[in-house]
Amino acid sequence: MSRALVALALLAAALLPLALESEGYAIHVLTLALLFAALGQAWNIVGGLANQMSLGHAAFFGIGAYAATILQIRFGLSPWLGLVVALALGGLAAALISLPTMRLRGHYFALATLACGEVMRVIANTAAPLTGGPAGISVPFGAEGVWMMRFEGGRPIYWLMLGALVVVTVVFEVIRRGALGYRLRAVRENIAAAEAIGVDTARVKLQAAVISGALTAALGVLYAQFNFFFDPDTVFGVASISVRIALMAIIGGIGTAAGPILGALIVIPLEEFANAALSDRAAGLSQLVYGAVLIAMVLVEPRGLMALRFSWTFRPRRASA
Amino acid sequence: MSAPILSVSGLSKRFGGLQALHDISFDVARTEILGVIGPNGAGKTTLFNNLAGLHRPDAGTIMLDGVSLVGLKPHRIAGLGLTKTFQNVALFAESSVLDNVLIGGLLRHGVAEARAFALHCLEQVGLAGIAQKQAGELSFPERARVEVARALATQPKILLLDEVMAALNHAEMEALMALIRRLREGGLTVIVIEHHMKAMLALCDRIIAISFGRKLAEGSPAEIARHPEVVAAYLGRAHAV
């Protein structure tokens, strides 16, 4: 994709909310899509570049959401400082999870990380004095202002999410094109060969996990500020967060910067509209339709929708960005 | 002889009931080309895997320029200057030829420098023309040469080549032997595993013959070619004069 095209898309994305109703449903869905695009991009560092299919990213997401919100409730800490705390805690949690799981591959890695997310969910449900337990936790209301991330209408938080997506995408691209990206690719393709030519595979995996976990936790803070209320089953959920994050990249195209963005822009609206259109018809019908569409997408192009686009544009299938 | 660059002593490795390596000892002199021969399953590749840290030996010592390699991870050993190629060729198949070699170069350089150095290494093995091809699409002989280039990109002091000449035609083999000799003149030490006896006799300064994990013989190519046990175990009757 050319620079001009990226700049144009970014400009359009920035101007779009001005054409939408400030408190409307469309802007809400788009903000959610931007959040999940950013989450998919953060996941892409581990899941795409190193091909380690984490299904535990809810652990970092929830840690960020809870840490910043609890600090805001107890000490009136600004969510901006909460972001910094979340980055640190997310990175730390990723390191702690990565050290014992990094030797695992494929399904085993996916299951081990999934368990980590579930452990966090159970802890958050149990530690009621701190987290509010199953009843959930609310971001305290206060005066409007940038310092407390309290905004009038839906536009500022949309722009905040767009900014977050840009930051995470830039981080992803810098990693992908840099030494770490090459080393992660070596880890993904042949770990013994990578070691034999001097790649410290354990360190490389740890670095990727820490960066991915830190970014995911920071996005958890933004989610809390966007949604105002959450509970352990939402932010630490397997289906609601962990699988959904991975899905953005898988549907869009793993290992590419455009993949999670494309995935989120399709999957999140699809999910929302399936819910809105079908949830009053029959119980579970919306999930059924949503699931069927996802299965169809994966069957049509297992490498993700990005690959589909390229195969339309260029005849030789190998040609890609 | 000055102090050996690599000194292996009493190296043993067992896999379950199989004694893959039994009390192997040898020294390698600086800028020597040492050959390792033996029948299939003799333990040649296992020896390389132990030297490069992919396996941990049960007993014995491996000293590279006075530093013990036993127990170090492969990437540390590569960092200390010992790099091996893989017998079955283990390229990053989905990456370009250039990127394969570039990753080797990252051991001692940043990305931009590593790319320039990778191109230089590809020129050395005569593959600069196909730098942008995907590694998985190459023929076996080409892949073997990419392996050599990728190992060279790590700038080793000692290079272990595991059957990189298998499947090469005569001209390609001559070219690779000429490259190995040039690299030696540039200060590199090389250990070579090959089945092609003629090439080994022409290329190596010294040859070690192993069989069933034990060192059978060690000596100049001429001595090895005449050694009765080697002839019996490896060369077969046809070569016995």
UniProtKB/TrEMBL annotation, chain A:
GO molecular-function term, one example from the UniProt record: branched-chain amino acid transmembrane transporter activity
Keyword Magnesium included in the entry's annotation: no
Transmembrane segments annotated in the record for this chain: 29-46, 58-75, 81-99, 157-175, 206-226, 246-270, 282-300
Protein name: Branched-chain amino acid ABC transporter permease
Transmembrane recorded as keyword: yes
Pfam families named in the record: BPD_transp_2
A cellular component term, taken from the record's GO annotations: plasma membrane
Main location: membrane
Highest taxon of the lineage: Bacteria
Topological category with respect to the lipid bilayer: Multi-pass membrane protein
Localization of this protein: Cell membrane
Keywords: Cell membrane, Membrane, Transmembrane, Transmembrane helix
Automatic annotation (TrEMBL), chain B:
SUPFAM superfamilies: P-loop containing nucleoside triphosphate hydrolases
Annotated GO CC locations: plasma membrane
Domain ABC transporter: 6-237
Pfam family, one: BCA_ABC_TP_C
GO molecular-function terms, A-Z: ATP binding; ATP hydrolysis activity; L-isoleucine transmembrane transporter activity; L-phenylalanine transmembrane transporter activity; L-valine transmembrane transporter activity
PROSITE patterns attached to this UniProt entry: ABC_TRANSPORTER_2
Keyword set includes Transport: yes
Name under which the protein is recorded: ABC transporter ATP-binding protein
Lineage: Bacteria, Pseudomonadati, Pseudomonadota, Alphaproteobacteria, Acetobacterales
